[in-house]
Design brief:
This protein is of the alpha+beta class. Among the domains are: 156-258, 2-Layer Sandwich (Tetrahydropterin Synthase, Chain A), CATH 3.30.479.30; 259-332; 334-433, no CATH class. Helix content is 49%, strand content 20%. The chain has twelve helices and twelve strands. It has helices at residues 24-27, 31-37, 56-70, 79-110, 185-190, 195-211, 216-220, 224-242, 263-332, 334-350, 373-377, 419-433, and strands at 111-114, 118-124, 127-132, 135-138, 145-151, 156-165, 171-182, 246-257, 354-359, 368-371, 389-395, 401-407. The strands form four sheets. A four-stranded mixed beta sheet has the order 10-9-11-12. The longest helix is centred in the last third of the chain and has 70 residues, at 263-332.
């Protein structure tokens, strides 16, 4: 072992050092080296100055000791025999743990559970071989088989905004939302690359086609529902042609508006259209109110005309029948019939006038009132008629009585009629006419 030269030693001489110790000359006068080894002569890593790395057996023993303490193992005997048995028991416990973990992982790979809203596609060495329905399925573990699962009941949505040209060469800004579901899991996963991007492009193509075949006013006002339906049908046709495995649920036109530069003019047009529709509704309401009234009035007039026609016809038939009967009586006895007609006419006329009985044969040619009928009746007027005629019945020179009628200006508007004298005169005439 080589030493180190001291400060007072001759040149080339050395002081031998014992194995395992550092020469004193190397430690004296070096404070860093002293701090490094103090206080127990170990370095910061717990090793002595000349210790090498731990051996493999030592590492294995430490690992077994840790596992033994973890699983509650201990020494069952003394000396080296007890230590060997503990190490063998710890190794067996470690193997059981590894086996249990492997079984759990294998069960997770072998048994596949599919939710009711999901469908799974089995990939065997990367190639689809089957579609799994909801439930528990037994499959080969990886890397032999792998299962891709997708939710087929979830409603997914994409939105799109674009400025489009209408049939009348106007520009419309449209915001739309497309809602869809997965119809075929296998087609959705493997037929197209990026189903969402494919659906977005198909939606833009469809909405441009539909709006391009309609005018701007139709798209902005009453045509939104029709545009939505036609767009959904066109999108479904396109994704079916692509085999994307998608089902379009609905298309909603969130907004359709003209560019901001012409928005005020279109607002005025829309307001005018709304006013037009309001006036149409008011006119329709007035028509529904007036037409039934006019129809009712027309029906009433028709009924009144029908009633008047029937009455006139009946009256004419009655007059004709009376005239026919009168003609027969006149042919049998003309004088009697003529007298009867005269009496009936006077009865009809005198029934509407006031009557006074006068005697014109008195001395001095003055009319003398013999019978004031009005006074006897007490001013009563049984029959209401037109302004009455005052009739004077005077005594003729031959002892008979004559009747004279004159307008009575002092009479009231409502004058009564005495029907009893007329009936008496009629009865007397009938008695005279009898043979």
């Amino acid at each position: 072992m080589m030493g180190c030269a001291g400060p007072g030693s001759p040149s080339g001489s050395s002081v031998p050092a014992r194995a395992g110790t550092r020469p004193k000359c190397c430690t004296e006068g070096n404070p860093l080296d002293m701090a490094w080894n103090e206080p127990s002569g170990r370095d910061p890593w717990g090793r002595r100055p000349n210790d090498g790395p731990p051996e493999l057996d030592e590492v294995y023993r430490r690992l077994l000791a840790g596992l033994r303490s973890l699983f509650g193992g201990g020494q069952t005997g003394g000396g080296q025999g007890g230590s060997g048995q503990s190490e063998r028991g710890s190794a067996a416990g470690l193997l059981w743990v590894v086996a249990a973990v492997a079984l759990v992982l294998l069960a997770g790979e072998v048994f596949k559970f599919v939710e009711p809203a999901e469908r799974g596609v089995v990939l065997r060495f990367g190639s689809p071989v089957a579609v799994l329905e909801p439930g528990v399925h037994l499959r080969w573990p990886r890397p032999i088989e792998f299962v891709e699962v997708e939710n087929v009941d979830q409603v997914r949505s994409i939105t799109h905004h674009a400025a489009m040209l209408t049939q009348d060469e106007n520009i419309v800004e449209v915001d739309m939302a497309v809602q869809y579901k997965v119809a075929s899991v296998e087609a959705f996963l493997f037929n197209v690359r990026g189903p969402d991007a494919t659906l977005r492009q198909a939606s833009e193509t469809a909405i441009r086609e539909v709006i391009g075949t309609n005018v701007m006013d139709f798209v902005l006002t009453e045509g939104r529902s029709e545009v939505s339906v036609r767009t959904a049908e066109t999108i479904q046709t396109l994704v079916d042609q692509y085999g994307a495995g998608l089902m379009v649920d609905s298309v909603n036109i969130l907004s359709a508006k003209p560019p901001e530069q012409v928005k005020s003019a279109f607002d005025d047009a829309i307001k005018a259209r709304e006013d037009e529709q309001r006036l149409i509704n008011e006119a329709e309401a007035y028509r529904k109110e007036v037409v039934p009234k006019a129809q009712g009035a027309a029906a009433r007039l028709v009924e009144e005309g029908t009633a008047y026609r029937e009455a006139a016809i009946s009256r004419a038939r009655g007059e004709a029948s009376r005239f026919t009967q009168l003609l027969g009586a006149y042919r049998e006895d003309p004088d009697l019939t003529r007298q009867r007609l005269h009496i009936d006419t006077m009865e009809h006329v005198l029934a509407r006038s006031s009557k006074l009985l006068m005697d014109s044969s008195a001395q001095g040619s003055q009319n003398v009132m013999l019978l004031p009928l009005e006074a006897l009746l007490g001013g009563r007027n049984p029959v209401q008629a037109t302004p009455p005629l005052e009739t004077a019945v005077t005594a003729a020179p031959g002892g008979g009585a004559t009747e004279a009628s004159a307008v009575n200006p002092a009479a009231g508007a409502n004058v009564g009629t005495n029907a009893a004298p007329a009936d008496t005169a009629r009865n007397r005439s009938r008695e005279r006419d009898r043979p």
